[in-house]
Design goal:
- With 580 residues, the chain is α/β, with parallel strands linked by helices.
- It folds into 3 domains: 259 residues, Medium-chain alcohol dehydrogenases, catalytic domain (Quinone Oxidoreductase, Chain A, domain 1), CATH 3.90.180; 137 residues, Quinone Oxidoreductase, Chain A, domain 1; 138 residues, 3-Layer(aba) Sandwich (Rossmann fold), CATH 3.40.50.720.
- Helix content is 29%, strand content 23%.
- The chain has 19 helices and 24 strands.
- Strands 3, 4, 5, 6, 7, 22, 23 and 24 form an 8-stranded mixed β-sheet that branches. A 6-stranded parallel β-sheet has the order 10-9-8-11-12-14. Strands 17-16-15-18-19-21 form a 6-stranded parallel β-sheet, with helices on both faces.
């Protein structure tokens, strides 16, 4: 029997020990044992557990963050890594090899899965590859936290068993990109939520609350500094529910008093408001909370916004210029790329490449894409990967390095010139740098979307013209990770042939060279994803071009332009797998 056939059928022996990469503390010097993996026992699964073989793992920048912060990382804060090291790796394709007796009805040896790492179990968050041992080991245990999670099982089964291992492992990062275009905010206030309405009636508008409460009733409504006409309008439209009228306190004080620090589900500001009120309101939103700014004048108002809350808490800023307070909730609700012009800033890395490919290959593909990066090597990679695809799809595609222009104004002029002098319908910012995010927002046209995709930490403050959400109906959005539904949606697209996750692969390595792989991700020296094959013990990190020289038989099986394919992977594994 061929190596690859044994591997697929799990007809090879299961060794007594497994190679695993572990994090013992803060910094690269605490990753691995002298830059090598550790031999750990392969355990027998308990009655409620599965023993799985990790087939392929994608390396992620998030893995480097665990190493960088060690016990100070928010997901493992306080953990003694010397005594209880972390096995990272959350982009995983795995195969079940043994099943505990209580799981034999639902799971079988030989079945293949991917895993959603954001595990929630009994109200806790024991994330896979952070709290729970992850994929950077040859074998691992999947237990109740994953199988009996708060959302059900976090293992997602394949419908198409012919898929390759790398393309499956990379469903997770692709799912994060796909999720960025599946963001959906509420089309009304939260039913049963906590609502704050603030406004002093200085503009003398008669606000219309009729539609606001038509479909949703908040559990509590607080009116701050509202004049009598506004109070009556709310009471008449609400017809029940708890209402509290207050004068004088700050939004921050009300945030503590009425939400216990959890935040308001909705904050509606009536009329132009001071910067401080807007900023406190933005900071006082709950996860998935919405700030609705009903402005009185079109004058620019630049305020401080926490980009990290937009990215991680998926808060929304909406608004309007009329009197119907509900209208903003239903204006510009579509956050997908709707054809037209797209600007992608800092797009030369692995995730940026995924954004570009998705924008080119979706059903309503962008008609014009400008991608930027400050690294000439990455610029060349983008040209190699996407210029022919753009030509094939009839998409105007341009790649610019801002550093190759004499000053920022010349760069901006060129960007706008390429877009026929106009602003953009969609802007993706892949750089977690406040001035870059602020500059990205300056390219937004009417009803445009700014997708803050880069992993900006909470507390990362950016200065944005908040009134544009009302006067131009622009939207600032962001997302982190993906849900179970996002991952399954992405997996099914892969299975239907609508997505090529392998297109982002730049290099591969065996289990011996993970340290170098992680370091390459940390330094950004690879313009693409790195896939690790745990059951290849000795393969130093190589680019696909270098791999062709070592395994010339895979060359005709690579994609146009030299990209990784499941056929090339299978031929490579047949030759390189070490199953004894």
């Amino acid at each position: 029997m061929k190596n690859i056939e044994k591997f697929k059928a799990v007809s090879h022996p299961i060794p007594p020990t497994s190679k695993a990469w572990r994090i013992y503390g803060q910094g690269m010097e605490n990753f691995g044992d002298n830059k090598q993996p550790t031999e750990i026992p392969v355990p027998e699964p308990k009655d409620d557990e599965l023993l799985v073989r990790n087939d392929a793992i994608g390396l992620c920048f998030s893995d480097t963050k665990i190493i960088k912060f060690g016990p100070n990382h928010p997901r493992i804060k306080g953990r003694d890594l010397k005594k209880d090291p972390v096995i990272p790796g959350h982009e995983v394709a795995l195969t079940i090899v043994k099943v505990g007796k209580n799981r034999q009805k639902d799971y079988k040896a030989g079945e293949r899965y991917i895993i959603q790492a954001d595990v929630r179990y009994k109200g806790t968050t024991p994330s896979y590859g952070y709290v729970l041992p992850g994929g950077l080991s040859q074998y691992g245990i999947i237990g109740r936290e994953v199988l009996d999670g708060d959302d059900g099982s976090y293992l997602i089964p394949l419908h198409n068993q012919t898929l390759g291992y790398s393309e499956l492992a990379l469903v997770e990062p692709w799912g994060c990109v796909v999720a960025a275009y599946r963001i959906a905010h509420r089309h009304s206030i939260r039913d049963g939520g906590t609502l704050l309405i603030a406004g002093n009636g200085m503009d003398k508008k008669e606000w219309d609350f009729t539609a606001l409460f038509r479909e949703s009733t908040p559990a509590r409504t607080i009116l701050l500094d509202a004049e009598k006409g506004t109070q009556k309008g709310v009471r008449d439209a609400l017809e029940g529910g708890e209402i509290e009228v207050t004068q004088g306190p700050t939004v921050k004080q009300l945030f503590e008093k009425h939400t216990g620090g959890a935040g308001f589900d909705d904050i509606i500001i009536l009329g132009d408001a001071p910067d401080q009120l807007i900023e406190q309101a933005g900071d006082s939103l709950s996860k998935n909370g919405i700030l609705n700014y009903m402005v009185s004048s079109p004058q620019k108002q630049v305020v401080s916004i926490d980009a990290g809350k937009v990215h991680y808490d998926v808060i929304a800023f909406i608004g309007g210029t009329g009197t119907d307070v509900n209208e903003a909730y239903t204006a510009n609700p579509d956050y997908t790329i709707r054809g037209g012009s797209v600007l992608m800033i800092g797009a030369g890395g692995p995730m940026g490449q995924m954004h570009i490919k998705l924008a080119m290959e979706q059903e309503d593909a962008a008609k014009m894409i400008i991608a930027t990066d400050i690294d000439d090597q990455r610029v060349e990679t983008l040209k190699d990967k996407f210029e022919s695809l753009a030509q094939e799809k009839g998409i105007a595609f341009h790649i610019l390095n801002p550093n190759n222009f004499a000053d920022p104004s010349q760069f901006r002029s060129r960007v706008l010139e390429l877009n026929d002098g106009g602003l953009f319908e969609y802007v993706v910012c892949l750089a977690a740098i406040p001035p870059v995010i602020e500059d990205a927002a300056s390219y937004l046209g009417d009803r445009a979307v700014l997708n803050i995709f880069a992993g900006v930490s909470k507390g990362t403050i950016v200065k944005l013209d908040v009134k544009e959400v009302a006067t131009k109906s622009v939207r600032f959005i962001g997302s982190s990770g993906s849900s179970l539904d996002d991952m399954e949606f992405t997996l099914r697209k892969l299975e239907r042939g609508e997505l090529d996750t392998n297109s982002s692969v730049a290099g591969i390595a065996g289990m011996n060279d993970v340290w170098k792989g992680i370091d390459s991700v940390r330094t950004g020296s690879f313009a693409g994803k790195i896939t690790i094959y745990p059951h290849i013990r000795d393969l130093d990190l190589v680019t696909l071009k270098e791999l062709k020289q070592r395994f010339p038989n895979i060359t005709p099986l690579l994609a146009k332009g030299g990209g990784w394919t499941r056929e090339a992977e299978e031929a490579f594994l047949e030759e390189a797998l070490d199953l004894e």
